């Protein structure tokens, strides 16, 4: 089995993980690295690739610019270019994810091997995973780590405005991507039952039968109880310098400086309890800092509140808050606290899983943790700690006092934790369960055929031009005549394709009426069907491919009573396309129609164009998906493909690595969000003249070449028209 793990944001490398550097470099980065190594240790897995975004930025380590980094003999980190070279937060990645998909597809094509399983981590990777899975027919596994709907609810509860949340966190796109991945994924792996019942249940595509709990593992080599043979712990002096009585037990809180981690409430609970202060000192490890004033707003606010709270309760000499620690020192921090006779606390408002709880337990520490989220499962399984309401400071202090003051109870918790972590939460146990659950999925993989099902002559061209038909190519007879001549002149090196919402029969009628030769490739019915050349050779593989999860009768039943939706005439319907006229004055918003289909567990693409048409097609079908499939079979780089269009149905053809043009008569508001993209040209001319303008703008045929052709042969010497047998 070849497993491809997708984790796109954050800074990921195989050593010295910069955990807590920012909100994007947290537990997920460690999880995926550990998972890759653990899976690669199994003899029944041949390769594990952890794919992330390549970052070339003087502000971060050059490690993140290396295209390939070996993790072990069978595991590696693969870094793929996407968007600007510099490091940017995940909320700014969305417009670059289509390029990531295209670059990753090109990488796999060059490697000559497709994975048997794609496993995406977080919403942005889910977006990429859905598109790669739908293109290549590879089973998709997903792990959310945190979910947008849950986060949005918590931010609203904290007093933030809904529009503010959506703008700052790109929440609408994130939630839409999460819905899409839940509708597509063959398996969703969660860390806890709470995650399934409380977080995934918020989604339209909530399908618990596709979900399984496989908790993350813990590295039992790194994390172990202190022994007499341990070397001195380097951080001891750095911690003790804060403390008046350094021999007291330590209460450890270790997390990012994030308001959700509830560190200030822990300080207040400690400050309000003289008994707890008499029993133990408090150790706060909250990321790394040189100067609090240089941190991002969230961390700066939390750490400023920490210092103010220490001062308000006059806790000097009782609290240690070192400014720096390295990731490899974290196991020593746990052992330092265990050696002191201390306790680990996670007081977070909510904790999706709680990997630090397992690390602490494996290091010989009893636990006190929030009752919201993953700790419920961990402490329920391990019987090694107490759960608390993170908003009840008195209860928090009482739980810590109970563990610290009752030595027999404390030792029992430690023993329980050590045994249960070894049996339930090792990476070896995780990898074994993982392999068992994904094994049946690999039988569903459908590798893309390598060449088109027709004369190989078509693959000896190094570029292609695809255009929508109505109102893009058509509309100006002189422009059409000049366009045909342009394509004929460059026929030796360029394929010509049409990508349209029309059926094949009506397309052929229009081509004949306007004197347009039959194209080399015809993508029809919104990407649901593909035919080649004047012989109209059908791509049977694509037809079988898009039939995945398609249930047209159920779609029609679901939409039959929706006001403002009127089925289009029969000539606009096809096997894989259900077409409606959409009246925006009567019909519900398109997102509500999409939600209706999702709640019926119908996994489809809903395509809205020009404000008046609404089409439903299979989840694997779209113009963009079909075009990328053809590009793969022809072996043409997407950077050598020019696409022309102008409605919402054309958007996914234009996103990513293709060159694109929106002709002047189709500068429609549906594509207004694409105006800033470098590879999308908004022409001044209309119809075919706009396409010719774009050809000149991109100098599209300037480097036109025929692989393996006689260098002395000129262009335009072949007089047959595009697509005809010659």
From TrEMBL:
Keywords: Glycosyltransferase, Transferase. One of its GO terms (molecular function) is sucrose-phosphate synthase activity. Residues 26-217 form the Glycosyltransferase subfamily 4-like N-terminal domain. The keyword tRNA processing does not apply. NCBIfam families: HAD-SF-IIB, sucr_P_syn_N, sucr_syn_bact_C. Belongs to the glycosyltransferase 1 family. The keyword Glycosyltransferase applies. This is sucrose-phosphate synthase. Its EC number is 2.4.1.14. Residues 463-699 form the Sucrose phosphatase-like domain. It comes from Thiocapsa roseopersicina.
